[in-house]
Amino acid sequence: MTRARAPLRNARTRLVLASVVLSTVMTALVLAVVYVTANRTIASETRSVVTAELAGLADEYERLGTLGLMRAIERRSQDAAERDALYLLTDPAGRVLAGNLLRWPPDIEPGSGWVRLELMRAGGDTAVPISAASIRLRGGERLLVGRDASARQQFDRALLQSAGLALLATLALSLLTGWLLTRLVFSRLSEIARTAGDIVSGDLSRRIPLRGTGDELDRMAETLNEMLERIEELVGNLRMTTNSLAHDLRSPLSRLRQRVEALTATDRPESERAAEAARAQAEIDHLLRVFSRLTEISRAEAGLGRDLFEPVELEPLARDVLEFYEPVAQEQGVALTLSGEDARLPGNKALLAQALSNLLENALRYAPDGSTIRVTLGRAGDRVALTVSDSGPGVPEEALPRLSRPFVTLDDSRTEQNSGLGLALVAAIARMHGGSFTARNLDPGFEAQMTLGR
Amino acid sequence: MSRRLLIVEDDPETRAFIVKGFSEAGFAVETAENGRDGLYLMTDGGFDAVILDRMLPGLDGLKLVRSIRAAGLSTPVLMLTAMSAVDERVKGLRAGADDYLVKPFSFQELQARIEALLRRPQDGTEETSTLTCRDLEMDLLRRRVTRAGREITLTPREFQILEFFLRRKNRVISRTMLLEGVWDYHFDPNTNIVDVHISKLRRAIDDGGADPLIETVRGAGYMMSDD
């Protein structure tokens, strides 16, 4: 058990980790894309506004001259709605003429394009980050238009902060969901592993507990339980067959031994020895028949020969088998009837004929003189049902479930004709065809039914 | 000229058993112990029939029969096997064997089947419309049977059994051969059902104390003979 649990736990950790890593990486990717795109959009927006403003002011200068431009700049610098807008106009020597900046940045040549720099605002005491563009006007004056970027930087920081928080939340959430989900699955898996462990240690009757939810895991557990049921049954049958086989072969083999002993005794008359030899041969033939029956049963149980399935018309097949047994039935004064609807199904013709012949032989063994054996073709749910009923004495109620087990006979006298394997073969053939075998008592009589998958 | 038979069988006891039987029956018998030798002898040709074990060292029976059929050899092959299952039988016949017999078998059964295989080609060539045995006549076209001129009414199944006998006159027919040939059943019924069918047929054709046409061959089966 400890060996079985450790890898399960590892698998669970790996699964949780994988889910956490995966969702975190995905969230980080999404956030990064949002961040970069937002930054780019804002920057290009600012740039186009500033460029347009610069062109507008240059226009003003052309129309109204230096003074008109100075007035326009003063007006705009005072505008409360545009607190982030920055302007600076200087004479060709760099002396400030108008604007809300303290002085012309020393290392900026007018017309050098888009720049980022730090400057003191008029009336401010610290330098602020600025993005700006500048031109030299026709009269040699320098004009700079820009935007205070400190608000942008704050927005940037806020964006990064919330992204970090989102990432942390994702991590926590995926850890939680991963843990919950895997707990759901792995607790069921541990149950299955525990059951399997118990079965390995010898308790074949253990079954996986069901939750009754009808979900996939429940259904899987159900299927596994059915499998376990079948295995238990097969193992049980095998155990019993082995026991019965050992028991059943002992008596004919010891009889055989006596016969051979009699044969080697030289003082016996020739005629007696010939009779002994014939009996010995019959004994051997019986043993061989038992063996080939057993082989047939185990082959049918294993589903061998399913590759030879072909479409079978059940009615003509049944009619042939009935006709085959008709003379024997006549001799016994028993009538055979066939009724019901024809059915087509995939099957092995030879084995189906053999199964029906076994059922008929069984019925003929017990049917009283003057009675009728009825063979009926019909439906049982979505399967085809082949039923053989007689008005014989039936079987004790408690023996019914045992009937299809190998070596079960009702009177403990297994004879050459009744090896106790006939109905076992019928059941195996029914199972091979996706069906089952059932038997019940009628009032009066006995009914054996094999169902077959369509 | 005696008929030539090849036996490919690895178990020395079974081989000796078969060889002894067929030699006494007047066959010229040759043997091989494994598949390769068997194939070698077979392709040399000249055999009237081959008895081939299903499980052989070297080259197994199924492969062997498949390869000789692929090579265009049509020598009748009877396959012997310890596997009684129906599907195994079908596989053997599909591979190209002409008949299939499950071990253990009685020698009479094997001999009856080999005789049947040896006569087989003639069945197809004589396209007769009447079959006869002594004073019994079967008209296949009108599906009428007469015995000494008197008409006999038979069920379709009885007709089929009788035809099976008439086509294999003077040869032993085992119960298994009847089961397979007439009903196409490949299982062994627990009852003496075949005997019951035969005695019914006998009553029909020997009606009125005529000479019995079908005789019982002890331990082997039945035979319908001309004399």
TrEMBL record, chain A:
Subcellular location per the Swiss-Prot or TrEMBL entry: Membrane
Keyword terms: Coiled coil, Kinase, Membrane, Phosphoprotein, Transferase, Transmembrane, Transmembrane helix, Two-component regulatory system
Coiled coil: 214-241
Keyword match Membrane: yes
EC number: 2.7.13.3
Transmembrane spans: 158-181
Group of enzyme by EC: transferase
Gene Ontology molecular functions: phosphorelay sensor kinase activity
Catalytic activity: ATP + protein L-histidine = ADP + protein N-phospho-L-histidine
Every HAMP domain range: 183-236
Histidine kinase domain span: 244-454
Keyword Cytoplasm: no
Gene Ontology CC annotations of this record: plasma membrane
Name of this protein: histidine kinase
Provenance organism: Cribrihabitans marinus
UniProtKB/TrEMBL annotation, chain B:
DNA-binding residue intervals: 128-226
InterPro entries per UniProt: CheY-like_superfamily, OmpR/PhoB-type_DNA-bd, Sig_transdc_resp-reg_receiver, WalR-like, WH-like_DNA-bd_sf
Residue numbers carrying 4-aspartylphosphate: 53
Domain Response regulatory stretches: 4-118
GO biological process: regulation of DNA-templated transcription
Gene Ontology CC, one term: cytosol
Coiled coil start-end: none
UniProt keyword list: DNA-binding, Phosphoprotein, Transcription, Transcription regulation, Two-component regulatory system
PROSITE patterns given in the database record: OMPR_PHOB, RESPONSE_REGULATORY
Pfam families assigned to the protein according to its UniProt record, in alphabetical order: Response_reg, Trans_reg_C
Domain OmpR/PhoB-type stretches: 128-226
A Gene Ontology molecular function term of the record: phosphorelay response regulator activity
Protein name as catalogued: Two-component system, OmpR family, response regulator
Originating organism: Cribrihabitans marinus
